[in-house]
Amino acid sequence: GSGFALGIIQLILDEKSKIKVSDKIATLASDDLHWVYLSIVLLGRMIAYINFFPAGFKSHLKGNVRSNPFFYETVGEDVTTTTVALKETGALGMYNRSNRSIHHMVENFGAFLVSIVPVGYVYPKPVFVLVSLFCMGRIMHQAGYSRGYGKHAIGFLLSNVIATTTMEGLALLVFLKANGIL
Question: How open is the CA angle 124-108-131, to the nearest 5 degrees?
């Protein structure tokens, strides 16, 4: 995240832009607002952790069934216990996985959404690029997921791995620069 973000900033910002960034960070630091940027990183890493933690409980499952956020079972007297999951095949399976993509976005995009304005204040053009990448990735994620588990991977990579972690990396850079660590 932050190493990648630092590399991007070094490549795309000209000297005039780097001076503007330094001035903005100095202003934030003078008002102790750089702590907001570290808060974004903390929130983002917590969201990532709580979303990946339950995945271990269904690591033995394969294919489309992994898209189920919940599993139910039938209960009652004289009822054979049966696991109930989302329909996987046909148009309804595509519908279920498309909606699971929305659910996945809502589960994961809190820190990204919160960071757009504060990080965008310091790095407006890179944030525009990251938001564009995130949007493209989410569209690809949903379209891929509708076709089957695993086909959403490139969208996940673009939106969650690249855009989200780079945004958090930019927030961390603000904090580190404001504290004189970088």
Answer: 20
How does 111-136 read in b/e, with b if 16+ C-beta sit within 10 Å? bbebbeebbbebbeebbeebbebbee
72: β partners = 84
Q: Give pLDDT tens digits for 127-145.
A: 999 999 999 999 999 999 9
Q: Which amino acid is at 81?
A: T
Helices H, strands E: what count in the chain? 8, 2
State how far the Cα of 182 lies from the Cα of 180, in Å rounded to an integer.
Answer: 5
Report pTM: 0.89
CA distance 107 to 29: 31
What is the spatial distance between Cα 126 and Cα 105, in angstroms, rounded to a whole number?
21
99, two tokens: 């909606």
